[in-house]
């Protein structure tokens, strides 16, 4: 992990509300980058529910099958497990 990455992650940790996070992300990202991240998060939540096929998720969201497959791989196979961490925390909070 580079020093630049660590500084970015620390910046995220300094945010205290949804509004602060939105302001920071709107400054940091282009609208298309925000949209892409939002789409990937929506796909992760749909995959986690295990009720829809990839094609059904594509039909519901318009997200490409390649992106859906990539999110599924990161959700279940990759070492980072960031999606899983947040999905599990959110389910405990509900």
Describe it for me?
- The chain has 94 residues and is mainly alpha-helical.
- It contains 6 helices and no strands.
- Helix 3 crosses helix 5.
- The protein is globular, with a radius of gyration of 15 Å.
- The termini are far apart.
- The mean pLDDT is 95.
Topology:
Blueprint: H1 3-13, H2 18-28, H3 31-49, H4 54-61, H5 65-76, H6 82-93
What is the C-alpha radius of gyration, as a whole number of Å?
15 Å
Q: Strand count, sense and closure of the main sheet?
A: none
> Strand-residue fraction?
under 5%
Number of strands: 0
**How would you sum up the global shape?**
globular
Fraction of residues in helix: over 70%
Order of helix and strand elements from N to C terminus: HHHHHH
Q: How far is the first residue's CA from the last residue's CA?
A: 32 Å
Helical run tally: 6
Low-confidence stretches: none
Classify the secondary structure makeup into a structural class: mainly alpha
What is the arithmetic mean of pLDDT? 95
In short:
The protein contains six helices and no strands. With 94 residues, it is mainly α.
